[in-house]
Amino acid sequence: MMKGKHIVLGITGGIAAYKAASLLRLFVKNGAEVQVVMTPSAREFITPVTLSALSGKPVISEFFTANTGSWNSHVDIGLWADAMVIAPATACTIGKMANGIADNMLVTTYLSAKAPVFIAPAMDLDMMAHPSTVANIEKLKSYGNHIIEPASGELASHLVGKGRMEEPERIYEVIERYFTTEQSLAGKRIMVTAGPTYEKIDPVRFIGNYSSGKMGYAIADECARRGAEVVLVSGPVSVSPSMPVQVVKVESGRQMLAACEEWFDKCDAAVMCAAVADYYVDNVSDVKIKREHSEIPSINLKKNPDIAATLGSRKSAKQLLVGFALETDNEMENAREKLRRKNLDFIVLNSLRDANSGFATDNNTITIIGSNGDCVKYGNKPKTEVAKDIVDYLSELL
Ligand code: C5P
What we know:
Elements: E1 6-11, H1 17-29, E2 33-38, H2 48-55, H3 74-80, E3 83-89, H4 91-99, H5 105-112, E4 117-121, H6 125-129, H7 131-142, E5 146-147, E6 151-154, E7 160-164, H8 168-180, E8 189-194, E9 199-202, E10 205-207, H9 214-225, E11 229-234, E12 246-249, H10 253-264, E13 269-272, E14 279-281, E15 301-303, H11 307-314, E16 320-327, H12 331-341, E17 346-351, E18 363-364, E19 366-370, E20 375-377, E21 381-382, H13 383-397
Parallel strand pairs: 1-2, 1-3, 3-4, 4-5, 8-11, 8-13, 11-12, 13-16, 16-17
Antiparallel strand pairs: 6-7, 9-10, 14-15, 17-19, 18-21, 19-20
């Protein structure tokens, strides 16, 4: 899939620059042609000789080649690229890219590139968390660049936190996937809700459910793989996305509603996969409820908002809304009733009667019921494959 692809690999001056050699090797081994463009400070971290030997091309880092005086055309390199990957991307280069400060070959090439751009930030945790870095990354995302989120772990400073450049294998995988899947959702923004909600009882207890988030995360990944910009509104889960998606973490049903209301109008579609608790606790205790109570304490429940129905009542003719139904009895009737009541375009039914399906499993068996009367049954498959079926159906409608 990578064979013959033209990759511009931008390397900036951070410790993680040494990992760029492994990334370059992966591209070359899989048949890509790579042009390395380094910032001047990247040369302090890894020698251009290593990179030119691995890529089979002279490395570019200056506007002019000193010994020949020939001009390195950032426009030509930008147009040659099928993808540009900046790994590692320091806070400095991210800032320059976000603000068009084209004082080196790398940023000028970035501004000239027509191809998709993937950015793998790497920096110390405090730099990563600084509001200016956060804002610059948001700005780059809003321009359509793909951010490959850094991992958490021990950093070069020996501090532990978020900022370690994602491993070369993972970066390679993201780019390979980009080329393998047709970009049928490019230009679309899709919101996905996932996971359970936790409804607080006291500071240490909550009402929750067994939802693992796996189905919603698989759908979010699949949408991103097909080029969509994805906003994943997620309850508390232990899974993480494999693709660059924007995760909005929430805990309660009411927080999930607020996040969905903020994002829905800016989206072309929403897939409501979360298992929202039906009730929240109205008399949350500020202190831990003690066991040694004279009488058994009671909790007052109130109905949580129905997020899907709320969005259904305000969706525009251009927007699509997808819901899920997890049923134990009268499956088809119940699912059809939800489809109507929540004003959904289609509903994905999974029955708890099917073996190896539903909550917290790796597999699922679904039936898609459309508002147009469609009813499509699928076999038992891993959730990642089920996600493809659902996103195929969604892409057709979009
Ligand atoms: O009504 P029920 O909970 O069975 O409906 C399931 C569908 O509605 C799912 O798509 C779920 O994400 C969504 N839902 C919601 N907000 C709720 C309850 C369910 O968005 N409070």
